[in-house]
Design brief:
Layout lengths: L1 H5 L20 E2 L3 E2 L1 E2 L2 E5 L5 H8 L5 E6 L5 H7 L2 E4 L19 E6 L2 H11 L17 H7 L7 E4 L10 H12 L7 E4 L8 H15 L12 H11 L3 H24 L2 E5 L15 E2 L2 E2 L8 H7 L5 E8 L5 E7 L5 H14 L10
Helix pairs in contact: 2-3, 4-5, 4-11, 5-11, 7-8, 7-9
């Protein structure tokens, strides 16, 4: 926040999140539910649902938030804005209870790729306040995005279901069209069949470990916490050292799998969320394409399997469903590829403008 204020940002206020950011639907007992500006009966997702909804409703031009399992990307997808998960260390998280934790990062949100890059430039920078902090390896992300006139030379891969949990057919169709449409910008686009779904248990274990570490001082009051947060903590408390070691080994395997992909492709594109926005009263979708999910977090597998490998990724609007609801295309890149990710996002948003929501028209 200090960097943003120093760059001239005017802070309007705080936006709503689930309890301690634990949840993919933005609801808490203090402020209630954040509703989706495209249809106020539906969820804005979470945990940065408040920021995404405020952007979509034109309440603010920029927003920022954190992303562990997809907290910037799924709200961006549901609300029709752009959210960027950053490379760990680019944006300082200070103070932080777990300063060495590299799966939860801070990143920007905006209504366009260029605005997102502008905010990213203001947020980044090396500091001794974080053990993960790194110097920014580019001069200006905004300049790179603004100057991008073509995607010539970029090798892109489209993967329809990296989590192996199924994807709503209309969402997959829109994402496929947006991805292959980048050929018009002179990119090479190839469809590939990959699944990182075997990393699910590893992510859940490491998430549980982090939840215990972040909320160690609340263990005696766990009964007062909401089901999502309390469940995450209890899951972490049940882990053994062997469970954590096994999760780290699997995490390494998943990272090497992503690394190998980026030896062939510059970016990997895939749907952000496998389902459209669901009713705001519902905690999470429990069925995808007729298949029952195991836990409240399974539906965000397409985003948390990127977080597991600590990769940067953006959600960019790829069009509207027949029900006039936004769909997000996820653009994943290797570490420190944010300017390239946002440049590709610029061409997607230009080809698929959403216009104003029914409530704003």
């Amino acid at each position: 926040m200090r960097r943003l204020k120093a760059a001239g940002a005017v802070v309007l206020g705080k936006t709503n999140t689930p309890e301690f950011g634990a949840g993919a639907n933005t609801f808490n007992k203090v402020f209630g539910a954040t509703r989706n500006p495209w249809n106020t009966a539906l969820s804005a997702s979470g945990s940065t649902g408040g920021g995404a909804a405020a952007l979509a409703a034109r309440m603010t031009p920029l927003a920022e938030g954190t992303d562990f399992g997809g907290s910037l990307r799924t709200p961006a997808a549901f609300c029709g804005v752009l959210g960027l998960r950053t490379t760990p260390g680019l944006v300082t998280k200070s103070p932080a209870t777990l300063p060495w934790h590299d799966q939860s990062v801070t990143g920007p949100m905006a209504r366009s790729a260029e605005d997102c890059a502008l905010l990213l430039d203001a947020m980044t920078g090396f500091t001794l306040k974080s053990p993960l902090s790194v110097a920014v390896p580019w001069k200006s992300a905004r300049d790179a995005v603004a100057k991008a006139r073509t995607l010539r030379g970029l090798r892109l891969a489209y993967a329809p279901d990296i989590a192996g949990i199924g994807v709503d057919r209309e969402i997959e169709r829109l994402c496929r069209a947006a991805a292959t449409g980048l050929r018009d910008a002179r990119a090479t686009v190839e469809e590939i069949d990959i699944s990182m779904g075997d990393g699910r248990d590893a992510f859940l274990a490491l998430r549980g470990e982090a939840m215990v570490g972040n909320h160690l001082d609340k263990l005696e009051r766990i009964g007062e916490l909401g089901d999502n947060l309390a469940g995450n903590i209890r899951s972490g408390l049940s882990l053994t050292v062997t469970d954590i070691a096994r999760a780290e080994r699997k995490r390494a395997e998943i990272w090497h799998r992503w690394r190998a992909l980026f030896e062939t492709y510059d970016l990997v594109l895939t749907p952000v969320a496998p389902v459209p926005p669901f009713p705001v009263e519902k905690n999470y979708p429990d069925v995808i394409e007729g298949r029952k999910l195991q836990s409240y977090i399974d539906w965000i597998g397409p985003t948390f399997l990127v977080s597991l490998a600590t990769l940067p990724a953006a959600s960019v609007p790829a069009g509207l469903t027949s029900a006039k609801l936004p769909v997000g295309l996820q653009i994943v890149g290797p570490r420190f590829s944010e300017p390239v990710i946002l440049s590709a996002a610029k061409f997607v948003e230009e080809a698929h403008p959403l216009g104003l929501q029914p409530n704003c028209a």
